[in-house]
Amino acid sequence: MHYGAVHALDGISLSIRAGEVFGLIGHNGAGKSTLFKAMMGLLTPTAGDIRIDGVAVSGDDFREVRRRIGYLPENVVFYDNLSALETLRFFARLKGVASDDCRALLERVGLGAAAGRRLREYSKGMRQRLGFAQALLGSPRLLFLDEPTNGLDPDGIREFYAILTELRARGVTIVLTSHILAEIQQRVDRLAIIAAGRLRAVGGLAELRTQAALPLWFDVECDEQARAAVRSALAALPVRLHETAATLRVECAREHKLAVLAALGRLEGRLRDVSLHEASLEDLFFGLSP
Amino acid sequence: MSVIKLQRRQVATIAGKEFWDRIRSLWVLAIALVFTVFALVIAYFGGAQQGMVGFRSMEFTIASLVSLVIYLIPLIALILGFDAIVGERERGSLDLLLSMPITRFELLLGKYLGLAGALAFSTVAGFGLVALVLASHLSLSGLAHYGVFMASSVLLGLAFLSLAVMVSVFAGDRTRASGLAIALWFFFVLMFDLILLGVLVVSGGKAGGDWFPYLLLMNPADVFRVINISTLDEVGALYGLAAVFPPELARPWLLCAVMLAWCVLPLSLAAWRFRR
Q1: Whole-model pTM?
Q2: What is the mean pLDDT of residues A132-137?
Q3: Is the same domain home to A37 and A126?
Q4: CATH number of the domain that residue A131 is part of
Q5: Contact B67, A42 (CB under 8 A)
Q6: Does some domain include residue B44?
Q7: pLDDT per residue over B106-150, tens digit each?
Q8: Residues of the domain holding A36
Q9: Which residues of chain B lie closer than 8 angstroms to A95, CB-CB?
Q10: By three-state DSSP, how is residue A176 classified?
Q11: B95 to chain A: which residues are within 8 Å by CB?
Q12: CA angle B162, B166, B171 (to 5 degrees)
C-alpha cells in the first residue's frame, strides 16, 4: 500500500487469532493507523488482501461483517451539535443495532451524567470515552482500537482496561495500538512491531525477548565487602557488572540466568536483596525497530 | 460501491441527520424567511421604479422573482453542499462513518437527499408563505403559475446542490471546494449567457446561432429561466428569450427532464469519483 511514491505498508503478513488481545506498536508514521484503516476496508491495498472471518474486507459481503466490528479511530471526531446520546443513537441506526442500549453504554464508559450535553462542551477525554462507547455498539466480536487511551486521565485509563478485561473474558478479539508501551505490556497476548511500514517482529512478550536476544539483569544490594565477593563468585561467568551507589548490576544473556542465580545463591547470607529484571516492551521496541 | 444492494435505511439515516441538522441550526428557517421577505418586497414594491407601489399581478411578481431566484438559489445551494464530503474528510469524521455498514454511494446519496430536503423545504415554505399572504389576490391561473415557479425553483436548487456535492467530492480540502463552488456560480449565473451572447455578437450571428437554444440547456439557471418564460407571456416579454427559444424545445416535460438530468449527472460523477 502506498501514497504516491511512499510505501505506507510493505509486505505485511499477519494473522490475528480469534479471542486474543493483539497490540500494534511503532513510531509515529510507522503505518499503524494505515494498517488499521486497511483492516477496516477504508483503504484498499495495492497488492494482497485482508480477510476477517474469511471475508475479504474489500468485498461487498464485508458490509455484514462490519456490524460485528467496533472501531475507535485515532483522534475520533463527532458532531459538536449533537449530544452524546444522539450521537450513539445515530451510529446505532447506521450499524443496524438497537438503540435501547445507548444510555447503558454511556453509563458504562462514565458518561451517564453527561449523556444529554452537546459535544461542543465535551473535553478530549470525554470524547474519547464516547468514541469507545461507539465502538462497543452492538456488542462487537472484534474491536479495532487506535490509541484508545489518548486524552484519558488515569481513572479513565484504569476504567478502559477494566472494560477491556471483561471483553477479553467474553472472547472478544481486540486489536489495539498505544504509544504508552508500559500500559499495554501486560495486557496483550501478542503484539507486532511495525517500523517504516514493515513488520519487524510478531509474537508474545517472551517470544520477542528471545528474538531480540536482549540481556537480562540482576540488581544486587549489599555492602562493599559483599560486592567483592559477588565479583569473585561471578568471575568465571560471561557477565557485565555496573556499579552504582545503591546496587551492583549484573547483566547477562538469558541462557546464563540460572548459573548467575546459583552463584548469587551461594552468597545468600551476605546479600541484602537480589531482584531480576527482564527487557521491557520499551527495550524490545527499541531493540527490534531501527 | 454497490448500487444494486442499496439499503434505503442507511440512506435515510444519513439524510435524516443532514435534514434535522439544518432544522435545528435554524438554517431552514433563516433561508425560508429570506425567500419570504424578498418575495413580499418584490410583490409590493417591484413596480416602484415605474412609480407604482402595491401588488400588481402574480405574473409580474414571478417575472421579478425569477431574476432574484436565479442569483440567490444557486448561491445558497452551493454554500449548502460544497463541504458535504470534503468537510467530513477534513474534520476526520469520514473514516468513522465509512467504518459503519454503509457503502460510499449510500453515504453520498444520503447527504444529497438530506440537504436537498432542507433546501426544498425552505424554498417551498418561504415562497409558500408568500402565496398564503397573497391568496386573496390570486386567480387560479396565477396560483398555477406560482406553483410552477416554486417547483422550478426547487429543481434549480437541487441541480446546483448536485454540482456542490460533486465539488465536495473532487476538492482536496474545504478551501479549494469553496473556491470551486464560487467559480461555478460565477460561470453559470454570470458568465455563461455573456459568453454565448458575446460569441453570437462577434460572429454576427453566424457561430452557434442555430445551437443557441440547445446551448442554453447546458446551464441549469437558463433552463429555470426558460421554464418560467415558457409558461408566462409577461415574463417572456420581459426577457425577450421567448423569441429565440423554439416552442418544440420549450415543452415543460422536456425542460423538467433536462433539469432532472442536471440533478442526476453531477451526483453520478461524484459517486463515480467517491467510490474509492
Answers
A1: 0.86
A2: 97
A3: yes
A4: 3.40.50.300
A5: no
A6: yes
A7: 999 999 999 999 999 999 999 999 989 888 888 888 888 899 999
A8: 2-210
A9: 100-101
A10: strand
A11: 37, 40, 42, 73
A12: 150
Residues 6+ apart with CB under 8 A from B176: B86
A9-55 pLDDT, tens digit per residue, is 888 889 999 999 999 988 888 888 888 889 988 888 888 889 999 99
The verdict on residue B3 lying in a domain is no
Asked whether B121 and B39 are in contact (CB, 8 A), the reply is: no
The three grid cell numbers given for residue B51, joined into one nine-digit string: 412609480
Q: Which residues have a Cβ under 8 Å from the Cβ of B141 and sit 6 or more positions away?
A: none
The verdict on a CB contact (< 8 Å) between A78 and B98 is: no
Distances (CA, A) of A165 to A19, A36, A40, A189, B223: 12, 21, 23, 12, 63
Distance CA B32, CA B124 (A): 8
The answer to whether the CB atoms of A78 and B93 lie below 8 A apart is yes
Q: In the predicted model, is pLDDT for residue B240 greater than 70?
A: no
* B2 assigned to some structural domain: no
- Give A122 or A244, the one with higher predicted confidence: A122
The helix/strand/coil state of A220 is strand
Structural domain that includes position B216: 8-274
Q: Are residues A115 and A257 in the same domain?
A: no
Our count of domains for chain B comes to 1
Q: Do A69 and B97 touch (CB under 8 A)?
A: no
Q: What is the ipTM of this complex?
A: 0.87
